[in-house]
């Protein structure tokens, strides 16, 4: 139907006849001549319909925004005064011989060069995607997955599909369920990840596996979550941590180089979980922000002020300081607002010292807490953090994890607010995660990674004796403060798997019921294996430079898990439910 | 953990030390020396553990089938008498220095060189896949999808994911449903295909789309069906039939050439639906069988025998003959059995004439019906079909479609039973499908393809007046009697889409409710577009040379939609159902 793409017609075609298909981006009537900018996925080209082309002119007169057209015409040079150097097609125009309206367009719900509200964008997604931003976003995502496959195919990875209709998986989030028609009262679950299947593929001798896999979590949605999401899922047999990490680090560098022409560090920096929490208050530190938490417990152990000295003396406590150069510019209101901000992360308060004039000693400081600190404490703090004129120092004191969390959140907030986020890409590996956390409410251990991650300790008795201090062979890949990938070496010995289930409070019966097939499979010569999974939605969004993963998903859902275009989910006929042996049992309306 | 793959160690490594990981395929004790054939995905290598290697020997003595091992040793030439030319590793062996048991294996549920029953294979799929046949089958499938992507990526197709949690789709089969937790009483449906989304992507200006997409149909399963299956889904904007067909024909040839080294016809033969039904009694004729149906109505219109003359004179009837050379070898029992066989396809009976001796006229014929036919009829039939000595002629008479169907089934059955299936690959296009069929039970038209396929007639009034005789712009790609792909040019005008819904008995309200977003999208300059979808499971099975698509699916389900390995589907806790606002309503047990 066409000979060329609109956006690719250039001066090499002058004098030739071309047939183009696309959409009317604009129509201008100027001096008795009609100009239509015709647009396709490659870009715009200017077409000219002159009045002596009567049929063409008549058709062109009917054209409105987004009419779908086919135009045949001759390419000619534009007058020098009309050349547009920014467009590939800017030196030429197409003088129309025929103008065919392939399809008319009703008045649009929004102007194509606007960015309307997201509800409108999602309802009319088929129009939204015609906009150059979305064309580019989706094409970057396609390029990303192409390059992933190119890289992995060349290295012998097998792209293998695993089931979508499967058994409840143990990733900790809620499963989506699918009632079975053939087996009344029974349900499939949609996978939260292909975790067990990929491990089974290693036991099955497939050696190297990957899949760009759809996963499902019925969680309460936040801005960056979708009920279905896509991960690059990988698994390797006969490997240790570095085998996995080295391969995927090369891959990530390859992806950024080929998709968005960015050269990432080689090698990626590496950091233990303990260091990341200590220095950045986060297990996914954003290294673009050049601020660090400094422990000042030693300087305040002796003070009367129990808010500081209590945690400083407690082995489970922490007194951390964040020094912000030029922070003294902050107003009292801004400082108070930061106090409210960190309260959301569990802070009971946010102490601070503003160093207005370092030469004046105490007189030069503004602070709600400095009165509780003696000179020794202030000297000790200032030395520890290298305090300078114009700094503001923030203090968090309390239980180690809570202080780390809210001071880490503060670091990010202040870094962003003060424009301290460097314009670079900051990847790193975080390693040596704790194997377990103790859940105070449930009164039991929970797995920090998942129950199939192997501990560094080989000995089961040792592990049981040191559960809370033992670390796992898990690792996360972090980029610009986002956890873009997470993986581990897996348990391949059945006795270790049973021991970990046991520590997690999973009874033998429950383990058998839920994971019997895994425990069986481990009995038949399961190889050592490990892997990783990367979030394709997030990596795409980072590459596109958008905050929202919805911009890199063709048909995303809203925060209430609705598709505004198709109106899914929706009510279904009663008969369909009967066939599936279920009934709706709505929650009772509150009186 | 390893320096080389087992199956790739050859004489170029003689004298070198290698570290290999894999499974014990066999262990033989011979003359005080232990031989272990170690296997990985690349193949086998013979390792030798000599008794003076005390630690290694002790470890090797414990080895049983499928123990997972790491062996380090030196490659040496085998004695000439032990060279195995069929193995890449057949000229060498590895003299072990260390033998490490990475994991033991319990006694196996089956021997790895057996092919156990499918139930056992599926329950222990992780062992089944270790067998060379399954390794090869899954790797061929991976190679197939790699080559699909390579071909389409190079041609500008965008690989775009469409939702799995979506709205009920209109493909005619039952949907799998997913209850919504957030929206009580509402349900998502799993897609039967991405049909509407891919059309919307064309309206959204994505131009060329593909996806290797998971699809779901809750149908009663047959041997070659799975509740979830995979299709290569494609769509093109601004195209006509031949644009789609030419591209994908090139692709299919590329796939067979690169994956299984088969050169398919160029171009593929083309046949209308009407011709395919007339000549082969099938819309997916297996052209490897060199038998055709011949219409003999003209020869029998005049006879008294109403079984023949009735349909012969009826415009909606058919009298068809299948001539089978050397069919006269068939026994009476075999001929009777064929009668029973075609009864399953709707035949009321199967008439036949066996030509035992052509020179003897009637005397040389054996037949239950020849007594009802005069010489003129017999002559006419024999001329029409080119009857020869030793033939058997089968006759079907009755309504056109029924006769075509059972005679088509007979053709396949006889062709296979008599070894008449040529050892070649027979692709073709079938085109010009009827737009509608009339469903006598439902008293309405049904779409032969789907309701989005455009008719060849542009005029809506014409279409309404000639619904039953109008043909669509649909096309199927057939290979060796399998429909491997099906597609069409789609409706892009909103008035035509509404007219087709109307003809299908879909009310304006129902159309709005189910397809409102499509009808809306068509209003905003939808481009002409078309596409196709190919069954990846079936194409993989054809390439592997297996009858069962389960052999090319890593974790398939049984005919009752069960996963024998994980026991999905399964019962879930009541609380989970409460969260989803549903209750189980089992069918009442029969008293």
From TrEMBL, chains A, B:
GO biological-process terms attached to the record: aspartyl-tRNA aminoacylation
UniProt keyword terms in alphabetical order: Aminoacyl-tRNA synthetase, ATP-binding, Cytoplasm, Ligase, Nucleotide-binding, Protein biosynthesis
Reactions accelerated catalytically: tRNA(Asx) + L-aspartate + ATP = L-aspartyl-tRNA(Asx) + AMP + diphosphate
Site-annotated residues for Important for tRNA non-discrimination: 30
Entry keyword annotation includes Hydrolase: no
Domain Aminoacyl-transfer RNA synthetases class-II family profile: from-to ranges: 138-573
Family: Belongs to the class-II aminoacyl-tRNA synthetase family. Type 1 subfamily.
PANTHER family: ASPARTATE--TRNA LIGASE, MITOCHONDRIAL, ASPARTYL/LYSYL-TRNA SYNTHETASE
Protein name, as recorded: Aspartate--tRNA(Asp/Asn) ligase
Designated gene of the protein: aspS
